[in-house]
Amino acid sequence: MVIRYSKLLLTAAIALFASLVSFGNITDYGSNFAFVQHVLLMDTIFPTATIQYRAIDSVAVHHAVYIFIIALETLTAVLCWVGAWRMFRGRYASAAEFNRRKHMAIAGLTLGFLVWQVGFMSVGGEWFGMWMSEQWNGVASAFQFFATIGIVLIYVAQRDGDIGDLA
């Protein structure tokens, strides 16, 4: 029973995190938009970098990308909240039922992993060279986020036995 509570609480913790990130991006749109804009403009990477041809200078695209990021963060939060709630409601259910109730949580955790690993580490960090920027480098934070989410995802995805089983 403790493991079931642990899994639903860790999922809820990620839901809270994604909710706060999404809320911050919405309520402080300008500050966080500047981050996305500088990454896409590639205006603070090494001046001798030969990848600057990848820069996007369209403000409309900057807003579209930022809104897409916010939507994915929000969806991550919603899926994780729903997943935690479904696990909570099934905490006394059979192992098979409880395992079925984890699907939304697993979807939310997977999406969160992809947002920060693919979106920020791969696309932002590598494609747009965010790692080269002293001021607009979110690689370390993104790594912390996706690593934490990944650990929770692995834990939650492990199959659960019936209540009282030690295995």
Structure explained in plain terms:
With 167 residues, the protein is mainly α. The chain has one domain. It is built from six helices and no strands. It has helices spanning 2-27, 29-41, 59-89, 95-100, 103-127, 139-157. Helix 1 (2-27) crosses helix 2, helix 2 packs across helix 3 (59-89) and helix 5 packs antiparallel against helix 6. 33% of the residues are buried. The model has no long low-confidence stretch (mean pLDDT 95).
**Quick one: overall form?**
elongated
* Unreliable segments of 5+ consecutive residues: none
How many beta-strand segments? Answer: 0
In whole angstroms, the N-to-C terminal distance is 12 Å
Radius of gyration: 19 Å
Mean pLDDT: 95
Task: Please summarize what this structure is.
The protein is an all-alpha fold and 167 residues long. The chain has helices spanning 2-27, 29-41, 59-89, 95-100, 103-127, 139-157. It has one domain (2-157).
